[in-house]
Please model this.
Amino acid sequence: MPDAPTFVPLGLAGGQGKTTVALMLGRILATYGLNILFVDADPQASLTAFLGVEPSPDRPTLLELISRPPSKIPLHTAIYPVPQNSNLFLIPADDELEAANSYLASSGTSLTVLRDRLYQAGEAVDPGDRVASSFDLIIVDPPPERSHLALTSLGCGNLWAIPAEANVKGVQSLLRTLELIQSYQAKIPYGQLAGVIPFRAKWVGLSPTETTRESIKTMEQLAGIERMLPHLLESDVYKRAINDQVLPRDLGKPDLEYPLLALIDRLKPALGEKASLIESREVVAR
Model:
């Protein structure tokens, strides 16, 4: 089996929807029978908490996986099953992950360290026995700032998406994130931007607010209309779905998932044969 591709939502400011996109994307793909490996690369460890995983003191987390050699910390020892979902797995984080920034800074190879570990580069492992061949997609949730953990997450990705709030803060985050990608694109030619997702878009009745409309227009100018994906509406349903470890569809709001379904359509070419498991959906932008 081929190794799974890696998807990374990127954003250089807090509250831009990275973890929401990572979490909901993985949960939706799991409903199609795809095996998903999450990697929590944020010291805040929100993804770990939202998935209901409690790291064990006698098992490695992402910190040990990054900072210690494969001979000491085999990749499989850091992978936890996600409760109540047999298709979801996680390499967890805790607040000690912050120490990884110092290690990565001194390593001189921060851009490639995480990718090398996840794909077991340089390890004496048969291709069919690589851990990445057991999954259909790897999803990395990076921290919301320009740090070495963010860089190693960027360098890990085959596919990136940029969630950005539909306001001034989100536009600035999008601009900085696009600049980050541009700075390193030549060093990671295997990575490509799948799209930009406006987040927490606000509507009044049948029309977006002026702030939402103007912000999305500016995002189109920065990223290009062809890269824009449908926006995620501001809704408490997402908060409830995260807290209840379900999807919006389980709360009677399947329409709120349509931006994620549009993202999945863009990821299909990278999923190979597994893309056939995903139902064909016509996604119409609101």
In short: The longest strand covers residues 192-199.
